[in-house]
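Hi everyone, sorry if this is the wrong subforum. Our group has a chain we'd like a structural model of before ordering constructs, and none of us has done structure prediction before. Sequence below.
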Amino acid sequence: MVSILDLTTSYNLYIAIQNRLRELFVNIIEKINFLLEEKKLSKKEFAEKLQKLEPKLKGTGEVPSEQTIDRYLNESRELKVELIPYIAEVLGVNEQELFTFDIEYATNYNYRQSKEVREIIDLLQYAPNSIITHIKEQLSKYKMLHSESVEKI
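Answer:
Right subforum, don't worry. Here is the predicted structure as tokens:
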């Protein structure tokens, strides 16, 4: 016999999982929109490129319409997981990048340079130690200057 406590616990767990999934997909949508802006790709252009790949929705077997894609991007409709590989392809990233925080090197200070920051990080493995030391020293100086200017304000 199932107790009320067991049902309540199960229901609360179900709600917690649903909320976490919703939060995860909101984060993915934010990353998609961030990458669209970074790549100077409009939502309409993105939708057209996505449709050209002809992803089929499991529920309907149809390619999502431009309006449906727009609703995904505006968070007014739940993103379908089967679209993730196609979205990643259109954006030129791998699927895992949409689920990790590697994309988000941007801050208020360097928002427009976030793509360049990721590229620099990827290239650092080829730099000799003397260059790494120099870069670190220079960045430390910029950090100190930035901190000083914030304190003055």
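For your construct planning: The CA atoms of residues 129 and 145 lie 24 Å apart. The helical segments are 4-38, 43-52, 66-73, 84-91, 95-99, 114-123, 129-152.
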